[in-house]
Design a protein that fits this description.
This protein is of the alpha/beta class. The protein is 50% helix and 18% strand. Bound molecules: pyridoxine-5'-phosphate.
């Protein structure tokens, strides 16, 4: 078994498709290539404004791929009902703001336990694993544990964007948070802003079981091809994990 799973986020194949309003490039084709290339899962973010992935895409990706599908969406009644109907393997609840270019920070679970707990319960009743996308903070991890989440996914954006002199500090937050989460027995994932370089230190954090990577992979695929890019990412993260 692979020690660290790679979830490939294919949202931006749909971004490109939607730019022309047609059917090319097809996210389902991308999902199938990712599967062949060694991805352990497909991740898609069904945004409320449907700016990239659409409901029909999610349905078809679930139907036409064998590897697990991780569906990211906002934590509200309407989106949770959509998730329950689509029945992906996992749902990752993310904060969402219509104006943002991408998911800018982690979900505030602390203080919102009463609002989020029923959504988690509903998804789990459907046998869908529930992940919460949070900043690597003890308070957020404890809140996620308290309301029964299966997984916490740490937002790695601050680490990826940090200036060189702050990188170590941001990495330390991730290392410590991964330790805390692991001690609570909750599964740890990570993602956002990862590329061939910055993924190395993140892959060395042994408590992290899965990385979800999108924008860089799809962008780099323009130059290397999707299959080669995924294979190279797979090689880098496995090598980093095995030499940690
Ligand atoms: N994980 C989550 C929960 C996300 O929302 C995103 C971005 O949609 C990613 C991972 C992937 O981030 P990136 O596209 O920067 O690799």
């Amino acid at each position: 078994m692979k020690e660290i799973r790679l979830g490939v986020n294919i949202d931006h194949v749909a971004t490109l498709r939607n730019a022309r309003g047609g059917t090319h490039p097809d996210p389902i084709r991308a999902a199938k290539i990712a599967e062949v290339a060694g991805a352990d899962g497909i991740t898609v973010h069904l945004r409320e404004d449907r700016r990239h992935i659409r409901d029909e895409d999610v349905k078809n990706i679930i139907k036409e791929t064998i590897i697990p599908v991780n569906l990211e969406l906002a934590g509200n009644q309407q989106m949770i009902e959509i998730a329950c109907a689509l029945e992906p393997n996992a749902v990752c609840i993310v904060p969402e703001n219509r104006q943002e270019v991408t998911t800018e920070g982690g979900l505030s679970v602390f203080g919102q336990e009463n609002r989020l707990a029923p959504f988690i319960e509903k998804l789990k009743r459907k046998k869908i694993k529930v992940s919460l996308f949070i900043d690597p903070k003890v308070q957020e991890i404890e809140a996620a544990v308290n309301i029964g989440a299966d997984i916490v996914e740490f937002h790695t954006g601050r680490y990826c964007d940090a200036e060189e002199h702050n990188k170590y500090k941001e990495l330390t937050f991730l290392v410590q948070a991964a330790n805390v989460a692991n001690n609570y027995g909750i599964e740890v994932h990570a993602g956002h802003g990862l590329n061939f370089n910055n993924v190395v230190q993140i892959s060395k954090i042994k408590q992290i079981k899965e990385l979800n990577i999108g924008h860089f992979i799809i962008g780099e695929a323009i130059f290397l091809g999707l299959k080669t890019t995924i294979q190279e990412m797979r090689r880098i993260i496995s090598h980093a994990r095995n030499t940690a």
